[in-house]
Batch of 4 targets.
Target 1
Amino acid sequence: MLIKKPSDIPSSEITPKWLYTNRRRFIATAAMAGAAAMGYKAFELFSPSESAQANEKLQFTKSQYSTTEKQTPYKDVTTYNNYYEFSTDKSGPSELAGKFKPRPWTVAIEGEVAKPRQIDIDSLLKLAPLEERIYRHRCVEGWSIVVPWIGFPLKALVDVAQPNSKAKFVQFETVYRPSEMPGLNRAVLDWPYVEGLRLDEATNPLALLAVGLYGETLPNQNGAPIRLVVPWKYGFKSIKSIVKVRFVKDQPKATWNEAAPNEYGFYSNVNPNVDHPRWSQAKERRLGEFLKRDTLMFNGYGDQVASMYNGMDLKKNF
């Protein structure tokens, strides 16, 4: 069976979220009604799979970097996901991530650093005060969301790592657990998933290591227990369930860039003037909305990030 990648589906063919949601609600309601008629505990049988993970409340402060735009509903953000380690279907990750174990968890710091080490998740949570940052996100497929992430600046981890003068880039790696992540048993991509940033990008104040959303710890399908969030880049750069952070001299391998370099550049900055080879990036559709809106350069974060790319040809370095 041929599996379509996101790059195979033009944004114009993405099902409007209102239609998708209403159809799923109708099916779920009908299923629960049928179960009730049979005397079953309908809410136990048909409750959303994301509820299988007991998410904890987090303590945090509000951040100055938040947008005031309307937030995408929690239900949409936690049931419409790109996470190929579980499934290539948008609803698949929330349905299949229940067996994933986000604790215990450690992150390895490797490469051109003063002291390579392993840091457990509880120690990571103490690197800097947690903040809520409401960020816009733009997916390369053409849809967008607004999410209240809970996390701390990536720079706090970089400072602990103490990269030496040779370090110019940072590479991140996702956990590899085929027994808990069924998508890994299919050769859709070259596993494990890896991504990378330039060191100055990694230390930009907007770069965030997220450990929660909507005031709670991350659901499995959203990258538990810790993920990267770089809101001025397309969504696939925000790697999930990180287990390794490697500081390197040369531009590192990045999974989608390796799989299709003519479609997914290493930088992947949101740029309405650089189209995907098979569709325009000038417009986007916010989940929950029917009409499209204009795509903003750097996803609207140009004031904070544009200076890092002064003098670069952003069409060549896409």
Target 2
Amino acid sequence: MYLICDNGYLRWPTTICPFTRSNKSSAEGFFSTNIESVRKDVECTFGILKKRWKVLNNGFYQRDIKICEKIFVTCCALNNYLLDLMESSHVRVGRGAPDAGDGIWLSRPRDVDPEETDRVMSAKFTHRRSLLVNHLYVARQKGIISVRLNCND
């Protein structure tokens, strides 16, 4: 499992970001364009959820991860219910804009050497991103996926 992110996050094997300054016709450029397109849709969805449910925007007062998970899943379920209700009544749903400063802070275990962890994580990140690039490029070459010409949708 991995998370699609932008280049502002740490280079961990679970966070996959686009390449910077890559040629759009190369495998890396194609990968980056697709990742950025998918990330945009996800960010818009989170923006909508945060605007609709203030508990997601203002932060949880709970520290138990299971309770936080239940709160988030409940908000998503209620959001889907409202979308279904709006769709059946032909109400147009607009997109919410992501709020500034909506980052998620992660921390590593405290009993490991930070420099060694960063080096190992960076190597794993590079390897995993390379595998994803090759997979996407081969799928495009075989015609399994098509190229999106307009990425501003």
Target 3
Amino acid sequence: MTSMGSMEPVAELDVRYSSVGVAAQDWTQVVRLLEAAEVFWLSTVRPDGCPHVTPLLSVWLDGALYFCTGPGERKAKNLLGNAQCVLTTGRNRLSDGMDVVVEGKAVKVDDDAEFRSIADAYEAKYGQYFTSPEGTWSGLADSIRGGEALVYRVAPSKVLGFDKGKQFSQTRWRFEQGQGTAPAC
């Protein structure tokens, strides 16, 4: 299992898109947001080069975002041809919150211990059935544990944070190569 542990990325404030006098956001704030966010948007590239965007559930674990899908899903087919992807989350408001963009390479998980950790993280975050025993997500963690769902790990190569409210800021976090991340695009 790839783990980035507690390695912190290098933060850079983009003053062109930030209010005067603000500082780069703290990485721990971004991690808390990624841990708590319920819905993420995954952007992949279709074989014809057109973008594909879809909402999904994701968990932050050991320095990476994890998501799952079925083998026949468009996102799984896209990732076969181009593993570079973007996961986004945030608030659909200008008055407060932070939007976060995570860039990286989706790597298919194939380790049983990692499957168990991911499934446990999904259940801890979303509950055993997410909606109901007959709902859409019923048994998802069991499908992960059993290897029935394709599970991907995205260790960030670059993260962008767009802080909103009375003071705006744009912070970029770059991860040093050799921390288990893909090179930034």
Target 4
Amino acid sequence: MGAGPAANAILMVFYLFYRGASIYLFPLPFQIPVKWVVIGIGTIEAAYWVLSGYPLLFTVNLLGLGMGYLWHKFLYRRAGMSVMIEDRIYGMRNAYHRWKRRRAARKFQVYMRKHEKDPKQYFDEYGNFMPPDERDKKNGGRGGWVN
């Protein structure tokens, strides 16, 4: 049947993604909202379907519009749902690891208070450990950049 049904499906999906968009139709020098283009093409195809002696071509073209709608409604949203579920799973995992780090930091602060030591004596402003005998040296006694 040609590329007509596929073009109609792409036009419908474009309309469903960008409902407020306007496009240029080739011979016309002004923009037309996509909604009116889809309605116009659907109306023309339906009129030909009713008035034509060979309605199969126009039925397939109308089915192209319908398949674009069904793809957007079911398949695209399903893919979006799986992405949302995946983000939730990884978000929960990351939240768990953040909770573990905060818990370890609180335990460390309790440990340092218990031994009457200030954690700032052992760590520089970047969080790098400085051994007690090398506190006066830059970067904990190591030369160069420290991660």
